[in-house]
Amino acid sequence: MSNSAVEQRRPKSPNIQIYRPQLTSVLSIANRISGVALSIAAVGLMIWLIAAASGPQSYSAVQGALGSLIGQIALLAMTFAFFFHLCGGIRHLAWDAGYGFGLRAIYASGWAVVVASVLLTAVAWIAALFMRG
Amino acid sequence: MAEKSTRSSLGRAVWLGSAKAGILDWWRERVTAVALIPLTLWLVASIIAHSSSDYPVFVAWLKAPFVALMVVLLLIALFYHVALGLQVVIEDYIHSAMKIPTLVVMRFACFACAGAGILATLRLAFTG
Which of A28, A38, B50, B96 is the most exposed place for a label (fewest CB within 10 A)? Predict the structure, then answer.
């Protein structure tokens, strides 16, 4: 049998979008998306520091932009992305150390990441609103 | 360096698979991740604590040596981690001739952002 005939009969791996989304695959791509989003937040942190170093006017301009409705929505999204990427990252570090590969453990840690990142986002915003008085 | 290498002799000879410099990038992504856990949690907690602070109070906080050091360390670890993370994303999705230029521009941007953030922090710490 020729090599090309084998290749033609060999089942091809289906594209990723054929699979039903699972917690594992959704969290995997979400960790990547949140990482890319946080790269933009890192640029925002740099702009914020430059504004603080440039003086009160530029600082209040940046604070004003963050205080607007769009700014607050972006800040909320970035807070969630931060805690999600943090919790997901710790989950990945545990895997890298060789722990938590059982199917039960993978789903338990996955749901723990979802719940913890939502709770931590809520706690951070309630604390910030409380500090603002 | 050579005796510490995790690459096999055959891997080095045929120059295949993860036996290139990928192990070092993989390791550094983890090391920067571990460093960023306390650094980012400290920054987020500090920003929350300063929610009601006006400009002079915030700048006085940022100028303190310990705070300035923490911010500089954070910027180094953060943009190193960003560069390594975005590199994997770019390598996964861009397969055209644009891959290498995109990687180079991304690296330049990470260096520039880290440098600008560090300069702003030090300027506040030393003058401001």
Answer: B96
Q: How do the domains of chain B map onto residue ranges?
A: 29-126
Amino acid residing at B1: M
CATH 1.10.15.40 fits A22-132, yes or no: no
Whole-angstrom Cα distance, residue B60 to residue B43? 15
Residues of A in contact with B116 (CB under 8 A): 46, 50
CATH (residue range B29-126): 1.20.1300.10
**Is the interface score ipTM higher than 0.90?**
no
Query: What are the domain boundaries of chain A?
Result: 22-132
CA-CA-CA-CA torsion for A122, A124, A128, A133, nearest 10 degrees? 50
pLDDT per residue as tens, chain B (128 positions): 444 566 677 766 776 655 556 678 899 999 999 999 999 999 999 999 998 889 999 999 999 999 999 999 999 999 999 999 999 999 999 999 999 999 999 999 999 999 999 999 999 999 85
